[in-house]
Design goal:
This protein is α/β, with parallel strands linked by helices. The chain is built from eleven helices and twelve strands. The chain has two domains: 98 residues, Arc Repressor Mutant, subunit A; 199 residues, D-Maltodextrin-Binding Protein, domain 2 (3-Layer(aba) Sandwich). A hairpin with a 4-residue loop joins strand 1 and strand 2. Helix 2 crosses helix 3 and helix 2 packs across helix 5.
Amino acid sequence: MNEHGVSPPGRPKAKSAPSGGRESHEVGERGGLIGLRVWRQFVAVAEELHFGRAALRLHMSQPPLTQAIALLEQRLKVKLFDRTKRSVALTPAGTALLPDVRDLLQRASALPNQARAAAAGELGRLCLGFVSTVGFALLPEWVRALREHHPGVQLELVEATGDVQLQALERGDMDAGFMLHSPGFAPAGLACRLLSSEPLVVALSDQHPLARLTQLTVADVLAEPLVIFPRRIAPSLYDAIFALYYGAGCLPVVAQEAIQMQTIVNLVSAGLGLAWVPHSVQQFQRPGIVYRQIVGSEISPVPRCETSLVWRSATARPALLRCMALLPSVNP
């Protein structure tokens, strides 16, 4: 054996068994995927270009290292090193492989920290559903806070109505959802955290005669046709609006149904009717639209709507629980 750790040509090589048989098992046909130990050995030899020094670096004897590299080449069916009496050099295949192996080892060494970060909720991916009204203020501010405090958590945001969100939560396709509802909403089998509470206001075309008034009563709007969302989207809120009319002895006249709140407001601007919308929708300023507060009474109180985060508590990811701490308090 010369100073480069290479046996002279023609001299039969000793059949030294690798320590504990680990190397042969990790690169042998029965070993499945090639183990990280062997890749570390490859990198050590590639960087030292000397089997003796590489063995010292790896705290092992040289013969098992030599055999491990030979078995690796046999397994890959590719020569990784050119060996002469005086030198060891990477082949083109070995040179091409080295950066990827270094990257593999670096990513593998990061896995324990990543696992701990995921368990602590600092790392992960969340799929969240949201209704359009949440997109006006609550959602953008929360996402901004998440990026600042928990940059390792990636969000997939899906705009969806409440009924679609409940189905996705039941299937496990979503981690949580922001939903609009009336007070007292309690989805079966799901956890629910109240985020905001606000009154409903009326959206009117600016050409409507009632638009000249700065404040309206319930009696002013009872006879007006409605533009409203389908009941399946938010049944509790739909029923609360209809209960207002029923309580006043009226049957609401639905002129048009639409799913998205922006679409409802756009239809109102075209003169199809008026719409009951959350107070926060007033941030959606569209030409041709005015918003008016409604003065209720003990007999006919104006309905309120709430926004809540809903999730399956039994399967909540640590990242979701940590990120929930950044959600705002209830704003009655």
